[in-house]
Amino acid sequence: MQELRIDEINNDLVIVANNRSKRPMDKIKSQLEEEIQVEYDSYCPFCRGNESHATIERYKIEDSSGWITRSVDNKFPIVDELSDEIYGVHEVIIDTYRHNGTFYNMSELEFQNLFKTYKNRYQNLIENKNVQYVNIFKNFLRKSGASLAHPHSQIISLSIVPPEINKEEEVASQYFIENKTYLYDDIIKREIKYKKRVINDNKYFLTIVPYASKYSGEVRVIFKENIKFEQMSDNYIKILSKVFKKLFENLYKINGYNPFNLCIHTHSKELENSEEFNVHMHIIPRKYSFGGFELGTGMYVSSTNPEELANKLRFELN
Amino acid sequence: MQELRIDEINNDLVIVANNRSKRPMDKIKSQLEEEIQVEYDSYCPFCRGNESHATIERYKIEDSSGWITRSVDNKFPIVDELSDEIYGVHEVIIDTYRHNGTFYNMSELEFQNLFKTYKNRYQNLIENKNVQYVNIFKNFLRKSGASLAHPHSQIISLSIVPPEINKEEEVASQYFIENKTYLYDDIIKREIKYKKRVINDNKYFLTIVPYASKYSGEVRVIFKENIKFEQMSDNYIKILSKVFKKLFENLYKINGYNPFNLCIHTHSKELENSEEFNVHMHIIPRKYSFGGFELGTGMYVSSTNPEELANKLRFELN
Lengths: 318, 318
Fold this sequence. Notes:
Two copies of one chain form a homodimer. Chain A has helices at 24-27, 108-126, 163-179, 183-194, 234-255, 292-297, 306-313; strands at residues 3-7, 12-16, 57-63, 66-73, 90-94, 133-140, 152-158, 198-201, 205-208, 219-223, 260-265, 280-285, 299-302. Chain A is an alpha+beta fold. In chain A, strand 8 (198-201) and strand 9 form a beta hairpin. The interface between A and B is large, with 65 and 65 residues.
């Protein structure tokens, strides 16, 4: 029996069609890309030692062996600093100097360095007076949109608030008007009480499989406190790194070396009533492609059972 | 220099970034699937002679050799007739009995049979009192969402108006309020005058590369007259078939055996002021995948130059 669900943070319409997973296509495991084995590739502009092939460096974290994580200008920026229409800066953050250093095998310390770099670049870019929003995301593997093999993230400042953020902020604001309570607080309370869609719950972050998502298999990490992204303390970053390490270990167990996107949704710079919106992260596996139904209607078909998936991914922090 | 464009029929935000086509990834031609050579595959439920492997037939067009085009129930429907939440019927239209009969090689007559079938099934499904919209689309090849190799289309009736249609109808309505002229009429006039984005212009249909589209390389076929989809005359269907035959011949010359989606946007059943909206078709090549930027922001990056692409695809009807 088909069910219509609404993703409460953005009003996306999702048809939950459990029968669809029996389709012939889905029996064939989508072919995964081969895992990179080498820690260094002499042709890779993002490997340590090949810095001369990359663009200007904006930030780095080092240890005695050299740089660990760094941020450089994107050679092919989506936005530019000279455009009147869409001002922005576009940097590439090299997750780790290791060519084979993926979210599936990164250490807690590597995640910490990466999140510290996210925070530093975010703080730096949001300050510009023309900037309304700073967008952090990651494409892992070709199928998710990545053009270079060496694992990397991207950060883009924008002179406008992107439509998807606008929508989420408006939905949260409308929720407050109607309920006199905060949307994210209510989601957090409800999910903790219901338990079955919770992957991990700790002091700072709730990690869940959302009740409804247009992206089959999405995992959502929600900040429990209403802080701005750039206010993350070292302790926050430490806990977030533990969450990511465990989460991606479990994702690897289930899906293998699967392409994914990470999209971080933060407050737009001039958002009034910023207490209505909580920072959160969408982790989107890219197993399936949208077809003409989704493209043509803006409705999405999901064959994920959130409770089942959460059960497979659940973990405790040590 | 980056440019921000708005797709005027749906308000999608598109960043036109011409430099992006120089990215390393784009130098590597995405690998195309192998073309099907055989006209008959004994394992295929959609081939003529294998009807017992398919579901109930709802309509067919025959000649002396047997059925040419037919519509059958979808074995794995997105919607169902029993759901209270999302009522609908989901049929699969087998474009042609030929296993290797793709849009890239179909004859004018095959296209005519297919469009006649679209019209028949549309007429039939829209009549149900619970139905608010009937959606016709096509996924060609795995990358576009197709699960079976034999070329086929899909038609789905829905008890709700899909968000994307709602949005397009609202944009058209708002345009009329602001301008006292019709959006689609104005687009048609402007594009014919400008010429450079026109692929083909004839009595009934204007085929263009849109000024802005979130789908890099999209081709749009717009009905010039304000008729409902089910009002297409035989002559309309004949001309549309000529357009599709030529268009896909040219697409094949440029892109080869490329995955694509066809999405037909028709009037919702109870649309007031239906004269504000024209039926149109989105033909969407699936060369590229959206990345985390598009998923996270709802903004799209395009590296297509519409004038260049239209120039390559332009044709006259004979």
